[in-house]
Write a structure and sequence with these properties.
Blueprint lengths: L6 H4 L10 H20 L3 E2 L2 E7 L4 E3 L10 E6 L6 E6 L5 E3 L7 E3 L6 E3 L9 E8 L2 E15 L5 E2 L4 E7 L7 E5 L15 E4 L8 E9 L2 E9 L1 E2 L9 E3 L7 E3 L9 H6 L2 E10 L8 E6 L7 E3 L6 E2 L14 E3 L8 E9 L3 E10 L1 E5 L3 E3 L3 E7 L10 E6 L7 H4 L10 E5 L6 E9 L2 E13 L3 H37 L19
Parallel strand pairs: 2-10, 11-17, 18-26, 28-33
Antiparallel strand pairs: 1-2, 3-8, 4-5, 4-9, 5-6, 7-8, 9-10, 10-12, 12-14, 13-15, 15-16, 19-24, 20-21, 20-25, 21-22, 23-24, 25-26, 27-29, 29-31, 30-32, 32-33
Length: 511
Amino acid sequence: MSWPSNILTEIHIFGSRSTSMQGDKMYAVWVAPLLLMITISPMWVDGAVVVYAQEGGSIQLPREGKAGDGVYMTWYFGKTESEIEVYNKHGLGQITMSPSWKDRISISSTDDSLIIHKVHASDFGFFRYEQKERQNTIVNIVYKLYEVTVTSPTTVLHGESVTLTCEADTSTVYPSIIWIPPETVDQTRKRMYTKQITIPDLSWRDKGVWTCSVNYNKATTSATTTIHVVDLLPTPSEPIYTSPSSTTPLHLPCSISSPVEWGVILDKGFRGGSWTFLPAAPGSGGPSQIASLSRNATPRWDIIMPSSKTDGSALEKGLKGNDLSLSKKVVTVADRGNYTCALKFEKVKLERTVRVEVLQVVASPSPRAFEGQRLNLTCTLGSGLDPESELEVKWVPPKAVSLPILASAPHPHPHPHTLSVEASVSHSGRWRCELRKRNKTLTYADVSLKIEKLPVDVWLWVGIASTGLIVILLIFIGRALIKRRRQRTQRRKTRFCCCKNPKPQKGFYRT
């Protein structure tokens, strides 16, 4: 069925003032059904419902409701004179499908909509839906499937620009086009209402699927294209926590933002790559290179210091040239610091830095002590924990140990960073410090204490030494008392003297 393009301007619903009432009635007889058909039917172009699709994608030709029992339902493809039967459902339920279509079509479970998967270039054309009951056609709807094409941009380097174009067949209809970016894009890149857009200064945020949404008569069809950006993905905003006690190797993440072949990276002007390490310990000097990457046909990290037990084999696995990560199986406190992954191109240098914190437990004065000694256990990252970082400590002593300071702490946190205990034999064993944040364990560190009783010979020498000290002390005390007593006696003694020519007197006189 094909309607003239000027039909709505030629029909006068209520007639004109110069038209007789009888003429108005005659108009209403044939105009009313026509207006009803136009009202309840979707927008038609050349007598067909307009639908858009992208080659290689999927599309659903909409149909409301399902055919009832005893009703024949058929989907056709092609013009009337050359249409072929694609899908048929017999009134008794038997289903037949065209051999050339059966692997790519299905019927919606909720209605009779035809779903086409992996649309071919030859699929763009007319489709027809038909329902028959007792050889009478009760529903007959024609669809016109138009093609939407989008450009497939080449892989771009960080900082470059790209142009995307979305073309929809507009020979007889004029749909609206909206470009929808991926969710990772910056807030400055919003929906763009034009068929061609230019995206400048690309970064890892712009990678991914860009969608061209084609809207016509409240029906929406999406066509997609993918942008691949050679950039480095962002590293974790928070430090990576590990410890010498951890059984999990230290993973230093660094990877290309889009899955691209190594040859594509070389074509973008790649000059070399490196991993450098800047220790956190004061006075340890500047950054040192721990691995280098050359412009070779096969990507491979060259480890500068093999003694560091650094592994760069991830670069040679999976999609080669994409995973630039390093790993270390053995970690020490000397590994605290900043690790920087860098790729150098002719036009730009890409860098990402990751911070590594190493947890340790320090036993002072020593993890080996005698019973009765005072021990201090400190859980540290090399410096005090920042209160704003929300980091907390949880101590896990040996099973036989029960410390009041841990039992009295609010459950389950916080525990003090430093424990002071009087060593006893029951304290021997592994003491664990867990570093936690928001009830999640980040890492842990262990220390093994060995508490021993004092040997017998040691106690003997201690007793002899103590006895000797007591005897010497008593001697000094005795001598001091005797000396003091003599001094007092001398002060109290009365002295007498005689003259050469004494005069006789009665008695003696005191000098």
